[in-house]
Amino acid sequence: MKRVVVTGIGALTPIGNNIPQYLEGLQKGVSGANLITKFDATNFKTKFAGEVKNFIAEDFIDKKEVKRLDPFTQYALVTAQEAFDMSGLDLATINLDRAGVIWGSGIGGLKSLESEIEEFARGNGIPRFNPFMVPKMISDIAAGQISIKFGFRGINYATVSACASSTHAIGNALDYIRWGKADIIMTGGSEAGVTAASMGGFNAMKALSERNDDYPTASRPFDKDRDGFVLGEGAGALVLESLDHALARGANILVEVCGSGMTADAYHITAPHPEGLGARNVMRLALEDAHLNPEDIDYVNVHGTSTPLGDLAETKAILGVFNDHAYKLNISSTKSMTGHLLGAAGAIESIAGILAMQHRFVPPTINHFTDDPEIDNKLNLTFNEAQERKINAFLSNTFGFGGHNSSIIFKRY
């Protein structure tokens, strides 16, 4: 099978609107949580989220086109362009029939759907719908729009597996290139879920933190007083390319993608298996796929959402897979800074690991105040400040409602 490398990355997150800004936010350990500006959250149980800040779509996309795109697709196009530019690809010299897009989103164009339903309700039942409603809303449209933008005529589809969506997308892209079915795949994920319906729904199921009086510290993975996740939004894009294709064109190779795993908990629609069974299995499969031993991993970017059940189950899973080596790992949850980007989480967290590998540091798990007696305190959860470390290989976990688990492994090239 072919080896696969990353030659470009792009990010739009609550702590930075491009790769340099995102890197700075990760190094400094900043919080992206703010009071919601996208709608009036006065009557909501949670009044804050990790919104993208100072983003003006018209700075990147034609004004007329912006009106035809849901924010999740706008985010996708902007990050894909950043990743493409970094990759140095030349559309005039590559085989566009062997260039594809696999893109993840857990929800898709929820804001567009919400707006159309609100307009319908205000119109006394008269069905006046925007002709762009459906192509703005459907989850696969970001992949389609990216392919149109760059003329990529190869593999093209969307992965939808809740919070595991973009890790599944990266894993699928890895496989298709390894199997020789594509030379280049633009992959990653985007989400624009800070909407009234989304916030209301997650509040109703008691998934979100309600720490309105101290929202910058609301995302507290592994802390004894964690009370739910902080909803985030944004996108992450990665250009995956076969090693031989990258070498032939003299590309700058960032890292190698070497393995992925995918499992199901088969346990509950929202709660993780209490012993982290699915999480344990997916990490083992990723290691097996990468032909690596547990001792080869230096850093685990955990799912770490700041929920009482999820964080505990994931630490149990890590101990079950890595045994004594678990105490030599750096472990951190970058969701403590960005919030939870749902279907885009795996993409921006993979990029966080790539940046950590390039710049020899481990991003912190911020907002830690009180140890949880149920979590092994000998684990290095990289609390509150970034730590210097040379990372030769890292693993990133994402787990989604429905019991979907996905892990991806990158190593130094």
Features:
single chain; 413 residues; alpha/beta; ten-stranded mixed β-sheet; two-stranded antiparallel ribbon; 13 helices; 18% strand
Give the helix/strand layout.
Elements lengths: L3 E9 L6 H10 L5 E2 L12 E2 L13 H4 L4 H17 L11 E6 L5 H13 L10 H5 L3 H10 L5 E4 L5 H14 L5 E8 L4 H9 L29 E9 H6 L6 E10 L12 H14 L8 E3 L6 H15 L7 E3 L2 H4 L6 H15 L1 E2 L24 E2 L4 E8 L3 E8 L2
Parallel strand pairs: 4-5, 4-6, 9-10, 9-13
Antiparallel strand pairs: 1-7, 1-8, 2-3, 6-7, 8-14, 11-12, 13-14
Sum this structure up briefly:
The protein has helices at 19-28, 63-66, 71-87, 110-122, 133-137, 141-150, 165-178, 196-204, 243-248, 277-290, 308-322, 335-338, 345-359, and strands at residues 4-12, 34-35, 48-49, 99-104, 156-159, 184-191, 234-242, 255-264, 299-301, 330-332, 361-362, 387-388, 393-400, 404-411. It contains 13 helices and 14 strands.
Structural commentary:
The protein is built from 13 helices and 14 strands. By secondary structure, it is α/β, with parallel strands linked by helices.
Number of helices: 13
Radius of gyration: 20 Å
Major sheet size, sense and barrel closure: 10 strands, mixed
The string of secondary-structure elements, in order, is EHEEHHEHHHEHEHEHEHEHEHHEEEE
Q: Terminal Cα separation, in Å?
A: 17 Å
> What is the total tally of β strands?
14
Roughly how much helix do the residues carry, as a percent range? Answer: 25-40%
Q: How would the global form be characterised? A: globular
* Arithmetic mean pLDDT: 97
Strand order of the largest sheet: 5-4-6-7-1-8-14-13-9-10
Spans of 5+ residues with little confidence (pLDDT < 50)? none
Sheet-strand content, in percent, reads: 15-25%
Return the structural class: alpha/beta
